[in-house]
UniProtKB/TrEMBL annotation:
It comes from the Eukaryota. One of its GO terms (molecular function) is dimethylargininase activity. The keyword Hydrolase applies. The active site is at H174, C280. Belongs to the DDAH family. PANTHER family: DIMETHYLARGININASE (PTHR12737:SF9), DIMETHYLARGININE DIMETHYLAMINOHYDROLASE (PTHR12737). Keywords: Hydrolase. This is N(G),N(G)-dimethylarginine dimethylaminohydrolase 1-like. GO terms for biological process: arginine metabolic process; citrulline metabolic process; positive regulation of nitric oxide biosynthetic process. The gene is LOC109476667.
Length: 285
């Protein structure tokens, strides 16, 4: 994220339908990944409410959109839009079942007076989870969810900034699953094969200099500890990262690297069963 002041966030409540109809079910089956674990909806909503309160506690004006049972993945509002300054690019998610998620976010942004652009090519796909902005340039995952035609819309909407496509493939869903802005000039990178490959591509294409902050991959004996903990949220001198019990090694790394940042722990724990991360569940601008 840029060093500009962020003042607002959009989140969306969790529908019952996410338990059985999230696109993660189809994605995992298609790419030979383990079946989705059942979601405890009561716990998921409690965690989501605490996550939302963390954003408020850090000074953001948070708009909470109601759940829509016809849109199982609607809590993942980050995928619907990319906002920089007063311009917003409404995306075109890969799955047709997710494309109406954009509508509710569009209404909020129009009400705030933002300049609205839209991906309107039927062959283009773009999801916000594949996009991060450093304040100087964009890095975008060229993934199963975002394609080159979608990335071109980012270039057209924000011609004042370089846009770089970073190759990504399953099992990784989005670029932010392996690399995220952790502070100005610092990118948190997962020390996995795809994280290492993404960092190499970032270094090759970047027009500005960045430092990698490596987060560990899980141990074989503890596959869910320190998993995808590079997925962090940075804004206004605040860093939101995983809970210590989810990523003890990662939290130690963040604390050592950023003694002067205001660090907060948060979780979307149950939603991780459908491939969610911290960044997925809010649109911050």
């Amino acid at each position: 994220m840029s060093t500009a002041k962020f003042t607002r966030a959009i989140v969306r409540q969790i529908p019952d339908s996410i338990r059985d109809h999230s696109e993660a079910n189809e994605y995992n089956a298609r790419y030979g990944l383990p079946p989705v674990e059942p979601i405890d909806l009561e716990l998921a909503r409690k965690e989501h409410a605490e996550y939302t309160q963390t954003l408020r506690d850090l000074g953001l004006d948070v708009t909470v959109l109601p759940a829509d049972e016809s849109l199982p993945d609607c809590p993942f509002v980050e995928d619907t839009c990319v906002v920089v300054g007063n311009k917003a690019l409404l995306t075109r998610p890969y799955s047709e079942s997710r494309r109406r998620e954009v509508d509710a976010v569009n209404r909020v942004l129009m009400g705030l007076g933002l300049e609205i652009h839209q991906v309107d090519d039927e062959e283009a796909t773009l999801e916000g989870g594949d996009v991060f902005f450093t304040g100087h340039e964009f890095f975008v995952g060229n993934s199963t969810r975002t394609n080159i035609k979608g990335i071109e819309f980012l270039r057209k909407t924000f011609p004042e900034y370089p846009v770089h496509a970073i190759p990504l493939a399953p099992p990784e869903l989005h670029l932010k699953g392996v690399a995220c802005i952790a502070a100005p000039g610092v990118i948190a990178v997962c020390e996995s094969d795809w994280g290492i490959a993404a960092w190499k591509a970032i270094q090759e294409q970047a027009e500005f200099s960045y430092e990698a902050l490596w987060t560990p991959v899980p141990d074989v004996d503890s596959p869910f500890i320190d998993d995808h903990t590079c997925d962090v949220i940075y804004f206004n001198g605040n860093l939101i990262h995983c809970m210590e019990e989810e990523g003890p090694k990662s939290v130690e790394i963040f604390a050592e690297k950023f003694p002067d940042l205001n660090r907060s722990e948060a979780t979307v724990g149950e939603l991780q069963n459908v491939d969610a991360g911290l960044t997925c569940c809010s649109l911050i601008f």
